Amino acid sequence: MAESTHFSDTFFKHKNKVQIVYFSGTGGAARVALSFEKIFTEKGIEVVKIPLDVQEAGYQQTPAIENFVGLLVLIFPVHAFDAPAPVYEWITGIPEGKGLPCAVISVSGGGERWPNTGCRAGCIECLENKGYNPFYERMLVMPSNIFIATKEQLAVQLLKILPLKVELSIDEILSGVRIRSKKPLSANILAAFSKMEKRKAKEFGRDFEGA
Ligand SMILES: Cc1cc2nc3c(=O)[nH]c(=O)nc-3n(C[C@H](O)[C@H](O)[C@H](O)COP(=O)(O)O)c2cc1C
User: Fold this and answer.
1) Full DSSP string of 151-210
2) Domains and their CATH numbers in the chain
3) pLDDT value of position 53
4) What is the 71 CA–ligand 1 centroid distance (Å)?
């Protein structure tokens, strides 16, 4: 059931900046983040965009919420039905949220269907535990980079309609309406699988460093 959080009031009266934080393995989520930045900016809203996939960047070591930020938008690709480890690491390092409104956007090849449906639940729980207000969540479909390749024509269509989908999301976010999914019953079981993927991803990264 939708309920108003009066988000827009807070946002426009006191803090007028949007902080977009994103992780992207192969550029899909980065495109989504760019589209969010462009459309917020077109609406006259100041944006600070922080990538978590730039290894040498200082903000990975010292995760922060910038001054005058009234909305946090977190964007990540679905990895093994969950958010990738760097997103969790970033959330762990940020200060207490004091009710800061957040929108959590997942990007996937498979879309909003089981077993992807719990992919934002872990991050949302971490944000809530730190005092943030994740009032909005949404899945955006982008070309798949694993297991099954997205057909070229479909991939082109997905990229073409991306700005329209992002515009719709931004309108929903700015309306302040709470859009949250129910955590699926299978989320805790799938979490074990996701945990294993995170461990393996780290080992894979270390192999590259040593190569
Ligand atoms: C290690 C790994 C795990 C993935 N797991 C899933 C998944 O569980 N569900 C899904 O729909 N897509 C999954 N994908 C596909 C990505 O979520 C999808 O292609 C996304 O658009 C990639 O975004 P990026 O280009 O920003 O990395 C996975 C991709 C990788 C590399």
Assistant:
1) PHHHHHHHHHHHHHHHHHHHHHHHHTB-B-PPPPTTHHHHHHHHHHHHHHHHHHHHHHHH
2) 7-210 (3.40.50.360)
3) 80
4) 26
* 144 Cβ closer than 6 Å to some ligand 1 atom: yes
pTM > 0.85: yes
204 token code pair: 């894979």
Give the tens place of pLDDT for each residue, 103-142.
Answer: 999 999 999 998 899 999 999 999 999 999 999 999 999 9
Question: Is 6 within 8 Å of 102 (Cβ atoms)?
Answer: no
Between 153 and 194, the more confident residue is 153
State the DSSP code for 29: H
CA of 106 to the centre of ligand 1 (A): 10
Backbone angles phi, psi at 179, to 5 degrees: -125, 105
**Closest atom, ligand 1, to C-alpha of 27:** 25
- What is the Å distance from ligand 1's center to 198 Cα? 13
Structure tokens at 63: 């995760």
CA atoms within 13 A on the CB side of 183: 13
pLDDT tens figures, 56-81: 566 666 789 999 999 999 999 999 99
